[in-house]
Amino acid sequence: MNNDFAFHLYKKLVEMPDYQSKNIFFSPFSVSMALSELSLGAGGETRKQLLSGIGYNSSVFSTEEMHRMFHSLLEEIDQRTGVDIDVGSALYVSDKLKLLPEFLEKIKEFYHSDGFTVDFSVKETVDKINTYVKDKTHGKIDRAVDDLESDTLMFLLTYIFFQGKWDMSFDPSKTHQSTFHVDAETTVPVQMMYKYASLKVFYDDELLSKVLCLDYDDSFSMFLAVPDIHTFFEAKTIKDLEKAISRQHIEKWRTSVNKRKVSIYVPKLSLKTSYSLNDILKGLGMADMFTDNANFTGMSEENIFISKAMHKATLDIDEKGTTAAAVTTASFTPYSYNPLLFLHFDNPFMIFITDQKNGNILFFGKVVNPEEKQ
């Protein structure tokens, strides 16, 4: 998976007026997997746009190799122990649509996709899809879809569920009521977890931000980054951080965090997010698939296009660890000041759940207001 795509998607999301001052949380892994699967059945300009949008570089590897890489990644994730992680996809096809056998074979071979033939004109189909997603995300996402048009021909979904316990858990008796500063004028009450321990931290001089890395086991980590509001320079805000941050910063943090004795304050969180991806993906250059210019001749001889693409995600952080789930659906400093003695995540901060083995960003987000549940 291409982490540049994660940042392109994030920056498109925060440009949207509806999401500018909201919590953001999504799985770039889930979205890119759905788009990669769609590219299997796309042709012409639609295929070009999909591959370009997810950051495919033909000079590095072939499309066949790209699909094989996803396949290897899914196989490898399946073998992980120490955390509970489940990734997969499902394809629901109308009994009125004939899909090409080659497309069905490839989506099964590369993505282990489950396949179902359904009648989209009956409400039970929506219930079936929601039950499937609820089961795969261990109850975290119970409604992947509210309704579907009766003339829907195909419905593709990808899901990811992650549950990990901290290497070093927080002591619940140290959790206390505290204040989170949404902005200069607004505060909200939060349950703040506390720990004093030898932890992986880093001060990013370029971004003027404090970075904390909390491991789950030897496989996955969470990075939290908060702008340093006590700097001698002009205080940075979350907007400054999200504007400047890139894939290269995450790569730098992975090798730059060092253990040192610090006090950390991290809020307990329970967030739910939901995004319509149509305009966001169009903004990333993938427009044709949503119009009658769509070319999915590798899927079916019928003229089909995607009417709706959605993404939903959840995040829970407590003293024991983290639970995160997502589903993507497509219907068709040099001073004596020491900034790292205390890391207070009591101002808006950014959050990443990454795979230590390959650096993939599984989940990506920003917490602006921990009290905003949806």
Automatic annotation (TrEMBL):
<dbReference type="InterPro" id="IPR000215">
    <property type="entry name" value="Serpin_fam"/>
</dbReference>
<comment type="function">
    <text>Major thyroid hormone transport protein in serum.</text>
</comment>
<keyword id="KW-0325">Glycoprotein</keyword>
<dbReference type="InterPro" id="IPR036186">
    <property type="entry name" value="Serpin_sf"/>
</dbReference>
<feature type="domain" description="Serpin">
    <location>
        <begin position="7"/>
        <end position="370"/>
    </location>
</feature>
<dbReference type="InterPro" id="IPR023796">
    <property type="entry name" value="Serpin_dom"/>
</dbReference>
<keyword id="KW-0732">Signal</keyword>
<dbReference type="InterPro" id="IPR042178">
    <property type="entry name" value="Serpin_sf_1"/>
</dbReference>
<keyword id="KW-0964">Secreted</keyword>
<dbReference type="GO" id="GO:0005615">
    <property type="term" value="C:extracellular space"/>
</dbReference>
<dbReference type="GO" id="GO:0004867">
    <property type="term" value="F:serine-type endopeptidase inhibitor activity"/>
</dbReference>
<dbReference type="InterPro" id="IPR042185">
    <property type="entry name" value="Serpin_sf_2"/>
</dbReference>
<protein>
    <recommendedName>
        <fullName>Thyroxine-binding globulin</fullName>
    </recommendedName>
</protein>
<dbReference type="Pfam" id="PF00079">
    <property type="entry name" value="Serpin"/>
</dbReference>
<comment type="similarity">
    <text>Belongs to the serpin family.</text>
</comment>
